[in-house]
Amino acid sequence: MCGIVGIVGLGGTPVDLGVLQRMNDLQAHRGPDGEGFLVAWRHAERFAHARLAHTAQWDRRAPVQVALGHRRLAILDLSERGLQPMSMGDTGVWIAFNGEIYNHRELRAELEARGGEFTTRTDTEVLLQAYVRWGDDCLAHVDGMFAFAIWDGARGQLFCARDRLGIKPFYYATPPGHLLFASEIKALLAFPGLDAGPDDAAVHGFLIHGNCDYGERTAFRNVRALPAAHSLTVDLATSRSGTRRYWALTPGPTNGTRDQDHVRHLRELLLSTTRRHLISDVRVGSCLSGGLDSSAVVSLIGKIWHEQPEAATAIGDSFYTFTSSYADPEFDERRYALAAAQAIGATPHLVFPSAADFWEVFPRLAWHQDMPFGEMSYYAQWRVMRAAREAGVKVLLDGQGGDEVFGGYAKFRYAYLMSLLRSGRLARFTRELGATLLQRDRYVLDLRRGYRYLPQRLRQAFGVDALLQRILRTDWDRALSDESTPATRWWRYASRGATGARTGTIMQRMQVDDIVVDTLPQLLRMEDRSSMAFSLEARVPLLDHRVVEYGVSLPDHLKVHNGWSKFAIRHALQGLAPDVVRWRRTKLGFAAPSRHWLAHELRPQVRELIADPLRSAKYVDQDALRRWYDSPEAGTANTEAYLGLFRVLALEMWIRAFNLS
């Protein structure tokens, strides 16, 4: 994992290498193991190239038209041969790459059989040679998490791409005369000609729905995200650029496969992808919340570590896991995390987030995340990443994506019940509803927790917006009824029912929406920024695209069955994960006691912050906010009201972190 930046001068506009250096410096945390630059300029009707260790080395012999920058986090082949940007002989093809190609060994063997010769053991060189061999179609050959830019001097084109699930970030902007890109938005903001203030619609959407990662849109005007599974091509001769989708997630048919065969194949697939995610020349550990997904990853690693130690050498003599813990049992998951760790002989590391520490790192969190974040749970993730760094781990595997792929969220259970009801399977509907109620899982039964998917009247009835509705400066009714809101999309899918094999069931369509649009993009941003803040590479084996395609395509009854969510993966882990974890009824993730902290422990700090003039006053009525926070009503307000308060605070801290007006 690394950081990449680039500037393309369009229509003959020269590139300012001083700006590129500042952009690269702002991503130094993504790659402390080295930096490098490529500059390209016109010479005798073709492009000439030079690789620089620092932009100050450029002798200004000609106006630069294309420049790439790279910060290296060395994971494979730690020698200087892995420095980037990297070229391939005299082809005039250069790459700046961030990520991991998990099938690089197989691809390397295939390319060698076709005459390819390699000078490093890096997956970067494999990707570069794959492009030289197959051009844009190289994307069909690579499996992994990646964001890269390839400058093809012979064609005069820049070819960029992002992995199928959007695990690795890629942002770009097109100020006059330029196209610029970076791994993090903060690097783009260093470009002097970029008008990138807050996007009002995105800010309102974040405050009301808790999310600002939707496809191309970001919280900044004129800054776009390259969507997952898309490529971007820039042609210098014409100054034209365009994007193309190269992969789409579509539920596949099950073709009458027996349930036990589905479970068996899922287990084999999970073991296979986990083995590939363990390839590393530096130490590997794992996040472990105590939930099913992270416990699944830890258990799979444990099996490989004990039975195929040659495939798990990066773990070392001790397998380190990292867990967020609290004194309050409502938020503490140590019981489950320790059970999963001890079952395989791992060495658990417990971290203890605190209100005081959160407030101290809040500004830094806001800066690193690039955009506002809606919950304190991301601070718990931050603490876990920090602990891993302090323990000497450089690569962390995590269970991100399991809920989306295998049907873990409460909304999927309701989607299944809706599907059963619409199809007239009343006996099955009654049985599933009864089993769900008997489990008494508050995560499922407390509808307020799913406030993002509730119609406006239910949000009002449950008091979800007790604070926000009175302090936000926006057309409340219009904001809640917009076509792009999570609730609008959920009910649209539910009301239309299943319309054929190509679109999948209600639940499958909601899963695809969650993965592509709604939930996963934000979670992946948080994962990337929290890990890279501490120069760690985070890997997410449950988001291998083969696992995702297979998981989403599973029949609904292997996701929700007799009141249990993620039914297939629970069975696939039989004999691997402890039963106390496999059949756990509750769900938390990296939770945090946000209501208690905001109402009590952090009360002086919050009062001080909202007493000063708010930089977010365009969006928030500060006087109304103060009155509410000091009123008796705030003392009895529900958790959702305090989540709204936290989003206001997060917005304010984001605006301050980037000095936005």
Account of the protein in words:
The protein has 661 residues and is α+β, with helices and mostly antiparallel strands. It folds into 4 domains: 3-245, 4-Layer Sandwich (Glutamine Phosphoribosylpyrophosphate, subunit 1, domain 1); 259-405 and 519-582, HUPs (Rossmann fold, 3-Layer(aba) Sandwich); 410-510, no CATH class; 594-656, no CATH class. Helices cover 42% and strands 15% of the residues. It is built from 28 helices and 20 strands. It has a 7-stranded antiparallel β-sheet with strand order 3-2-4-1-10-9-11. Helix 7 (292-307) links the parallel strand 14 (284-287) and strand 15 (320-324). The longest helix is centred in the middle third of the chain and has 19 residues, at 259-277. The protein is globular, with a radius of gyration of 25 Å. The chain starts with a strand and ends with a helix.
Q: Which shape, going by the Cα principal axes?
A: globular
| N- and C-termini, Cα separation | 33 Å
CATH architecture heading of the largest domain: 4-Layer Sandwich
CA-based gyration radius: 25 Å
Q: Total strand count, please?
A: 20
CATH fold-level label of the largest domain = Glutamine Phosphoribosylpyrophosphate, subunit 1, domain 1
CATH top-level class of the largest domain: Alpha Beta
The DSSP helix count reads: 28
List key phrases describing it.
6-stranded antiparallel β-sheet; 661 residues; Glutamine Phosphoribosylpyrophosphate, subunit 1, domain 1; 20 strands; single chain; 28 helices; Rossmann fold; alpha+beta
